[in-house]
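Supplementary Methods. Inverse-folding protocol.

Structures were first reduced to a discrete structure-token string of length 172. This string, shown here, constituted the complete conditioning input.
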């Protein structure tokens, strides 16, 4: 009988971790894809994507998507579980913000909409692939979406030509 207490104590200490470990993959599996989050944002606001990432805000997992229409930049927040747009706000390109995005980035994002969505859909078609972040950047004279994702091989980065939607080799 002297072993009852340590065994009971160990079970009490280990059980919450096992429950949390079981819940974590379920929560990940229930997360909508980056493609679906962007589609929801574009349904509310017809624009091109400059940046998108999944992050925690006030304890909730959300997608934060920076979109452009003309020269106006909007930040759209999408719930990662439901895929519903939670908020959108217009960011004026003045002061600090004017240095974040160049005119060519704004134009390229607007023109790359279909190419980006096809590339994201193709990437997420592979089982277990989750896009975590993407950003539009100028590299070697062309506009490239740098995409951070997690797949069966682990975390990796791929680059998509904004003009063609084709994957490009990392030239580093």
């Amino acid at each position: 009988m002297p072993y009852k207490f340590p065994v009971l104590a160990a079970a009490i200490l280990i059980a919450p971790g096992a429950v949390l470990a079981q819940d974590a993959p379920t929560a990940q599996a229930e997360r909508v894809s980056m493609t679906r989050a962007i589609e929801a944002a574009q349904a509310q606001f017809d624009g091109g994507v400059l940046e998108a990432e999944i992050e925690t805000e006030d304890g909730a997992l959300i997608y934060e998507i920076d979109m452009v229409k003309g020269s106006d930049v909007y930040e759209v927040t999408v719930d990662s579980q439901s895929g519903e747009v939670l908020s959108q706000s217009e960011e004026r390109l003045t002061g600090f913000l004017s240095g974040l995005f160049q005119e060519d980035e704004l134009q390229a994002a607007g023109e790359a909409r279909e190419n980006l969505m096809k590339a994201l859909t193709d990437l997420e078609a592979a089982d277990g692939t989750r896009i975590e972040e993407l950003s539009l950047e100028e590299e070697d004279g062309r506009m490239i979406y740098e995409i951070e994702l997690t797949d069966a091989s682990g975390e990796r980065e791929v680059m998509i030509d904004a003009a063609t939607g084709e994957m490009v080799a990392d030239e580093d």
